[in-house]
Amino acid sequence: MTRSYLPILFLVYSFLFPFSATQSDAKILDYFKRDLSKVPTKEKLKTQEPLAKRKLDQALTYEKKGLDAKAATQYQYIIKNYPFTSSAPTSQYKLAEHLMKKGKLKKSFEAFQDFVDKYKSSSLYIKAIQAQYKIARSAQERNTNHKIFFLPKKFQQSVLLEWFTSIIDNAPFSPLAPLAQFAIAELYENDDKPSQAIAAYQSMVDKHPNHSKSPEAQFRIGEIARKKIEAGSRDHANIVSARNAMEDVIVAYENSPRAKEAKIALARFDSIEAKQFYETAVFYEKQNQLRSAVIYYEKAAKAKDPEIRKNALKKLSSFQAPAPVRGTPKKNELTGNKPGQLNPEQATQPSVPSVTEKEEVTIPNDKKGPVILPPPPAEN
Which of 21, 34, 71, 336 could hold 62 in an S-S bridge, CB 3.0 to 4.6 Å? Predict the structure, then answer.
């Protein structure tokens, strides 16, 4: 039967049995609206109900006796031959549960997903999603504990991402949704995909700000940026991102255990930033780009680190032109040059802006130092 006739069949079925169909029959029919070609007649469904019930009771008896294989066979028979009976949802759930006990996580997850897709009104719906989360977490832990580097992991990351995403889609407002979102972020982080991990953690914080894992998610955003910095990245945006994330932890989650660690991290970021400013200034000075050097020495001079601040101020003072001493002859008088005439040494000396400790050089935004800091000079 073609797809175009399915809506017509559904209308005919509804018209013929609007009053005689029981409420349970209506629910079962609702599960399978997408495949109406398989909908049995009312009389046939009535004959199937006791047969399916007998099979289900037999399967449950097998299960109590520990005969799981025989029970699974009965569940499969019911699902295949009596999919519209009231015994089908329980059979589908029990089959998925059996596969999970056998350790067949992938088949079990798919079986639970079939249950979720077909039996949304079942009282076992939430339990099925809880089982899916348990399966996904178990698979994730197996991958985490994978030690043999030359062998592939048991579960591909794409499969785990699909599973956790399905859990969120199946129950977006359940307590499992934020846990699944956090797991997605962990997958990206463990797979060394920092950008995707930060986005996933941020989504967790934005959608579930009051969840118990949100402080940890916010802290990890800063931690990922910190790792980039410690790995040698000189992109100043990483420091800005890390600082903002840690400040959010302190402000939004001041009572969380991570708040204290965030304060320590902030102090570390200030020290790293000041060191980078100073190293960048030295780099520009050696390149004879004195204006840029002055800008970064001024930034370093504001550091909380006393050693860096002292060295930066010393450098700035060395750039300042010395004031002439009273009573001493002008250099032109000693050299015999005419007023306004430069001697050869002065003519070749580069012009250096005069900067004091209280005066900052201000330049347009488009002429400020680069966003990505240059590497420090090589050690001699």
Answer: 71
Under DSSP, the state recorded for 279 is H
End-to-end CA distance of the chain: give it in Å, rounded. 82
Q: Check if the beta carbon of residue 220 is closer than 8 Å to that of residue 356.
A: no
Q: What residues form DSSP beta bridges with 235?
A: 372
Cα(306)–Cα(226) distance, integer angstroms: 23
Tell me the whole-structure pTM to 2 decimals.
0.69
Cα of 118 vs its chain's centroid, Å: 31
330-379 pLDDT, tens digit per residue, is 545 445 555 555 555 554 445 545 444 444 444 444 444 445 456 555 55
Whole-angstrom distance, CA of residue 177 vs CA of residue 166: 10
Long-range contacts (CB closer than 8 Å, 24 or more residues apart) made by 193-201:
194/224, 194/227, 194/228, 197/224, 198/224, 198/225, 198/241
Q: Please list, in sequence order, all residues whose beta carbon lies within 8 angstroms of the beta carbon of residue 376, skipping any fewer than 6 positions away.
A: 279, 280, 282, 283
Summarize pLDDT for 177-209 with one digit per residue, the tens: 999 999 999 999 999 999 999 999 999 999 999
User: And the tokens for 380?
Assistant: 């001699």
15 sits in which H/E element: helix 6-16
- Characterise 60 by phi-psi region: left (phi > 0), alpha (psi -120 to 50), beta (else): alpha
How far apart, in whole angstroms, are the C-alpha atoms of residue 168 and residue 185? 13
Q: Which of 296, 248, 290, 260 minimizes the C-alpha distance to 275?
A: 296
Interatomic CA distance for residues 208 and 340, integer angstroms: 71
